[in-house]
Structures are given as C-alpha cells and as structure tokens.
Design goal:
This protein is of the alpha/beta class. It has 15 helices and 12 strands. Helix 10 runs parallel beside helix 14. The structure holds pyridoxal-5'-phosphate.
Length: 388
C-alpha cells in the first residue's frame, strides 16, 4: 500500500476558494467596506464592484447583467425561483424531477402542503428524465417546469433544452438548477432555454453563501426576500459585497478554460471508474455512462454501508461522500439512487468521488490502491453478504 496521502475528492460538496478569488475579495472586507446603498465615494466603490461582478456573472452564462440577481447561495436562488413563481403564477401545478437537490424538492413539498400539486418526473436507470414525460405532465394549471442541469450525486446531465422547449410550447416558464453545471461545461441561458437559472459560487472556486438567480426579462416572478431596495427592489438585504466580488471573479476563472479543465478531470474520472469496476467485484456505476459531469464518479458496492466506507477512507486521508445522504434523524437511502431503481441495500452502499482543480494522477493512484482493501475489509465483516 502507498504511503498515506491527504486527498480531497468531494468537489461537488464544496471547492476551495481560488487564490486569485481570495485576493479579489480581500479589500472588500477591510478598506473598501462601504455599503453599496450609501451616498459617498467609499460606497460607490463597493457598488461598482458589485456591478462589475454582475457583468462577469452575466457574461459567463450568456445573460444580460440586468437579468442577474445575487442571493445568499444556490438554495436561496432555487427557493426564489419556485416560491417566487408560485407568488405570481396563475395556476397551482409544478413539474419537477424525482432527483432534484433538496433545495428544489423541499420548496416544492412546502407548496404541496399549501395546496399546490407537484409532479415529480421519473428518471431512467441512468438518472435521465424523458422529455416526453414532461410533455405528458404539463397541464393548464402548470406554472413552472424545474429540472436540474446536472445531478450532484450521480453526475447525470439532463436533456434540458428539449424539456425547456416543451415547457415553452405550453407557455410555461422553465427553471434549471445549474449549481453543479457552472464551471463543469459551458452554460448559456439561451442555448439551454432557461427562464430562471440558479448558481452557487462555492461550487466553482468562489466563497460559500454567495449565489445568483438568473431571471429572463419578462418572466413572472414575485419578490422572495422583502425589505430594502437592493438588487433593483427584487432581493432585499445589504449585499454580501466580498462574496459577490468573489462570485464574479470565480465564475470568470472557472469558465475561462472549461474544455481543458473538464478534459483533464474526465481523464482522471475515467481511470477511477475503470479501476474500481475492474478491481472490485459486485460493483456498479451510478448515473449515465456518457452524459455525466466530467468530475463525477458514483459507484454502488454490494454488501457494504456507504458510511462505513467513508470512515475508513477518512482514516486513510481521503475525503469523499456517500450517495446515501443519511441525516442523523433518518436512515433513508438517497432519493436519487432509489429513483434510478437501485434497491435499498445497494443505494446504501454507494460512494461518490468528485474531482477538482487540485486533484492529481497521484491522488487517483492512491484511491485506486486503497479502495479494494477497504471494500474487502467491510465485506469480510458484512452481515449482508451472508444473506446473498
Ligand atoms: N443545488 C445543487 C444541485 C447542489 O449541489 C447544491 C449544493 O449542494 C445546491 C443546490 C445548494 O447550493 P448552496 O450550497 O449554495 O445553498
């Protein structure tokens, strides 16, 4: 076995802030601390920085700066898209998918409890929505179709444009949670057909607690955060100036060499997938074999618990994640994996490795060298194995 290394392979959870991003943010914590709403030079400096960041974010997604609204992250942007549409929509039905992030599923459930009807589109074994199912689900009362661009657990990329076109044919706006897509592949709101799009800075080398909602001009959406007149009266609250500056710089850097970056990650991803499937029996790949994020490896090992894998990997210096996002209160397996048809015991034995800018081929070698031993040890003591 190789010597112990420290390997971070959980970039879908969060990413380190890039040095150039930190450098851009730093002055806005200290000497340029002004409130953008105030009326003096110090404040104007902060306001200009916010507008510059808005321009950068807009340019990165093919939008007009006037269509970008800063939020406190991806969760707020998704909540705003869904609940804000409900506030202004002339119906009571929402179409989404069964494998959305909780930032979409839970606001939909909240509306469900208030009398809205929500259709959760099924996915195939690879986690893909069939656009024909969206067509069948849309009714006269439908106010929004919301399907994520790429899934955070299994990395599957959705046929977003086809779904958006169907929504538009019925006069229904289309929202996409693009939190995992930005920086992973080129995102353009027109190419995608998005009327609403959520993004989050900490997923692409920016700070936590900073995000944005793209709102296509003319889209009917109510105000979600009431208070002051910030963000042209549509999202109240003093701007997180350093966070917004960080978002702007990070999206610029993350989208500058997107092809080269994702090619490098995809090569490591494919070596990991091949190595794991070749060396460890009773293992399968979760998600789509081709239509998948360049940085995502998600595998299900039979007879083992994902949490146990994480503990042993952590002891070996590897930070990873499990597809079965158990909360302390419940041991429910991942809704994403079960929607893909995985039986509960396999959904519980899933591991997600997500790659990013600091990973190297040596990290891949290390993971491949220790993982078979980890799974072997757990299977040796697994009560599940005896039942097979
Ligand atoms: N949507 C997806 C697909 C995500 O992966 C995440 C973060 O895990 C979110 C939304 C929430 O974003 P944030 O952490 O900025 O609230």
């Amino acid at each position: 076995m190789e010597r112990r290394r420290s390997v971070y392979m959980d970039y879908a959870a969060t990413t380190p802030v890039r040095p150039e991003v930190l450098e851009a943010m730093a002055p806005y914590f200290s000497e340029r601390f002004g409130n953008p709403s105030s009326l003096y030079a110090l404040a104007r400096e902060a306001k200009e920085a916010v507008e510059e960041a808005r321009g950068r974010a807009a340019a990165a997604i093919g939008a007009d700066p006037g269509e970008v609204f800063f939020t406190a992250g991806g969760t707020e942007a998704d909540n705003w898209a869904i609940k804000g549409t409900a506030l202004r929509g002339k119906g009571n039905h929402i179409v989404t998918s069964a494998i959305e992030h909780h930032a979409v599923i839970h606001p939909c459930r909240a509306l469900d409890r208030q009398g809205y009807r929500v259709t959760y589109l099924p996915v195939d074994e690879f986690g893909r929505v069939d656009p024909a199912d969206a067509e069948d689900a849309i009714a006269d009362e439908t106010i929004l179709v919301s399907v994520m661009a790429a899934n955070n657990e299994i990395g599957t990329i959705q046929p977003i444009r086809a779904i958006a076109d169907i929504a538009h044919d019925h006069g229904v706006p289309f929202h996409t949670d693009a939190v995992q897509a930005i920086g992973a592949y080129p995102v353009d709101v027109d190419d995608m057909g998005a009327d609403l799009l959520a993004l989050s800075a900490h997923k692409f080398g920016g700070p936590k607690g900073a995000g944005a909602l793209y709102i296509r001009r003319g889209t009917r959406i109510g105000t979600f955060m009431d208070g002051g007149a910030q963000e042209r009266g549509r999202r109240a609250g003093t701007e997180n100036v350093p966070g917004i500056v960080g978002l702007g710089r990070a999206i610029e850097v993350a989208t500058a060499d997107i092809e080269g970056h994702s090619r490098r990650l995809a090569a490591m991803r494919d070596r990991l997938i091949r190595g794991i499937l070749d060396d460890i029996p009773d293992t399968r790949l979760n998600g789509h074999p081709v239509e998948r994020l360049a940085n995502n490896v998600s595998v299900a090992f039979r007879y083992v618990e994902g949490e146990s894998i994480l503990l042993l990997l952590d002891a070996l210096g590897i930070a990873a994640s499990t597809g079965s996002a158990c909360t302390s209160a419940s041991l429910e397996p991942s809704h994403v994996l079960t929607a893909c048809g995985l039986p509960h015991e396999e959904a519980h034995g899933s591991l997600r490795l997500t790659l990013g800018s600091r990973n190297t081929e040596e990290d891949v070698d290390y993971v491949l060298s220790v993982l078979p031993g980890v799974i072997g040890r757990l299977r040796d003591i697994s009560p599940l194995r005896g039942e097979a």
